[in-house]
Design brief:
This protein is an alpha+beta fold. It folds into 3 domains: 2-83 and 193-252 and 360-415, 3-Layer(bba) Sandwich (FAD/NAD(P)-binding domain), CATH 3.50.50.60; 86-187 and 254-354, D-Amino Acid Oxidase, subunit A, domain 2 (D-Amino Acid Oxidase, Chain A, domain 2); 443-521, 3-layer Sandwich (Rieske Iron-sulfur Protein), CATH 2.102.10.10. Helices cover 26% and strands 28% of the residues. The chain is built from 10 helices and 25 strands. α3 (51-62) runs parallel beside α8 (381-397) and α4 crosses α8 (381-397). The longest helix is centred in the first third of the chain and has 33 residues, at 95-127. It is globular and about 65 Å long.
Length: 527
């Protein structure tokens, strides 16, 4: 396992960043699949070996289809391995806000889809005998100091109209300093990597094929071609790569990438109830409205892990606060509410937030009828990935699905666009300022374990010097739409502030929508 982790930062195979989440336990191996080394033909090819891709593959093989899944890293190496794995009907956006965009009937269908996703996961765990720590438990939504109590009551009223089981409590169980909250009795959680590895075994058992270390350099309606030239011909193509790598403009211009931070700390067993907690988010920050989200995970005989996330910001735009400061703020917030001990792990993940707050699932915009995407998890990835698998399976099989119109990627809701474009305008100004006026540095001044943008022969380059003194030089232009990447000191990656593409320090793409590596250079020539 040590060798398995040691290559992570440079090649991005294990996980999309330097920091490894608590889900990568000793003995849990995500490499148990071969690489694609020949041409193949199938009915459905799925790009992406995370929860969305594997749920889709499982649903497809259960419906009798021949399926192949390809993943350019190891299973779960994208955002599935960096989630906190809450399985909920309590969404990041409030239902009373979504009703303004979607109306009461569609709002109820959105709620229905998340409830069915939770039920589906529970049924699969039982049917396939997947040991993934799945459990049903309560969730509690309490007020952020910047929010108003009346909004809790507005949310409760809308939840009840959407047939979500919820009630108001005068005090928040497990957090004495927090008062009124909404109680959601029917939520769930699991161990995400154990679950998708269980799905993988079930897929193979039912005749599906899974290939890792296989990058899809070409994707179209006929199938995919790997970076090594092997082709998979298919009748249907599903791209489930968090950000769709086959869609440069139509979808990515309607969603924004956020970075969210997570800590896992020891907490004495049975010292607090097993539950999920969320606050309603900081209303003073219009770009991301960061909120806190908390759960427990079994650890050993004496302690559980308390997993707490938050401190979100736009990818590549730190808003004047370093990654270390965000972790420290997160630890402080957690210590004020829970009796935690040592922080044993920390990491960050990327969340794609659509302009109207719900996922894009269905036929790819401006593409052939047999190409599908699943994207825009909006911070609720466990249920949206599951909804994606259920919905895309119905679309491919010609089965009418009640959620099709709600989630279709071609939708554009004008009401929802106003706050999105206000945010977009402000952030693009910041990006452009950084592009044209960013201070650059001399190559010789870059210290060990430091990354900065430099100019070599008139060209902007990303330069990183590792702890041993070795220098890595890459183009500073994102291979998606040529925005300038920014150095992520915490995860040791180059991140694009325009649409969330990310690259290792050696230039390998680890997050879309970019699908090509950053060109690498020698110290003497960036040409």
């Amino acid at each position: 396992m040590d060798d398995h982790r040691s290559d992570n930062v440079q090649n991005g195979k294990l996980s999309a960043g330097k920091n490894i989440s608590c889900w990568y336990e000793p003995g849990l191996d995500t490499r148990l699949f071969p690489e694609l080394l020949s041409d193949l033909e199938t009915e459905v090819v799925i790009v992406g070996g995370g929860l969305a891709g594997l749920t889709t593959a499982y649903c497809m093989v259960c419906s009798g289809k021949k399926v192949i899944v390809i993943e350019d890293g190891y299973i779960g190496s994208g955002e599935t391995g960096r989630t906190t794995a809450q399985i909920v009907t309590a969404l990041d956006n409030r239902y009373y806000e979504m009703e303004e965009f979607f109306g009461k009937e569609n709002n109820a269908l959105i709620a229905e889809s998340h409830k069915e996703a939770i039920n589906f996961i529970e049924e699969v765990v039982k049917k396939e005998n997947i040991n993934c720590d799945f459990e049903r438990l309560s969730g509690y939504l309490f007020l952020h100091p910047s929010d108003k109590e009346e909004n809790l009551y507005k949310e409760l009223n809308t939840l009840q109209q959407c047939n979500i089981n919820a009630m108001m409590l005068d005090n928040t169980p497990g957090i004495p300093i927090e008062k009124k909250c909404i109680h959601y009795p029917d939520q769930a959680q699991f161990h995400p990597l154990k679950y998708i590895l269980g799905l993988s075994k079930a897929i193979e058992k039912k005749g599906g094929l899974i290939f890792i270390n296989t990058h899809a350099s070409e994707i179209n309606h006929t199938g995919i071609v790997s970076s090594k030239g092997f082709k998979i011909s298919a009748k249907h193509v599903v791209v489930a790569t968090n950000a769709p790598v086959n869609n440069k403009y139509a979808t990515m211009l309607k969603q924004w990438a956020h970075r969210s931070y997570v800590i896992a700390a020891l907490i004495k067993k049975d010292s607090i109830p097993r539950a999920l907690w969320w606050d309603t988010g900081d209303k003073t920050i219009h770009t991301s409205t960061p909120y806190h989200y908390v759960r427990l995970q079994s650890h050993n005989d004496e302690h559980d892990l308390l997993i707490c996330g938050g401190e979100d910001h736009i990818v590549g735009i730190n808003e004047g606060k370093s990654e270390e400061e965000r972790y420290n703020d997160l630890i402080k917030w957690t210590q004020e509410r829970f009796p935690i001990a040592e922080v044993v792990s920390k990491w960050s993940g990327e969340v794609l937030v659509p302009m109207d707050s719900i996922a894009f699932i269905g036929k790819n915009v401006f593409d052939k009828e047999n190409v599908y995407i699943i994207t825009g998890d909006a911070g609720i990835g466990m249920t949206y990935c599951t909804i994606g698998g259920l919905l895309v399976t119905d679309l491919i099989n010609g089965v009418k699905n009640r959620w099709e119109e709600i989630y279709k990627p071609s939708r554009f809701i004008l009401k929802a666009s106003e706050p999105f474009f206000r945010m977009l305008k402000g952030d693009l100004v910041a990006v452009l300022k950084k592009w044209f006026y960013r201070d650059t540095t001399e190559l010789s001044s870059i210290k060990e374990d430091e990354g900065k943008v430099v100019i070599l022969d008139g060209q902007k380059c990303g330069a990183y010097r590792n702890p041993s003194g070795k220098l890595y030089l890459v183009s500073a232009e994102c291979t998606h739409l040529k925005c300038m990447v920014q150095w992520n000191k915490d995860e040791k990656s180059w991140d694009c502030p325009c649409h969330g593409s990310r690259f290792t320090y050696s230039g390998k793409v680890i997050n879309g929508p970019a699908n090509e590596d950053l060109p690498s250079f020698s110290e003497n020539s960036p040409e």
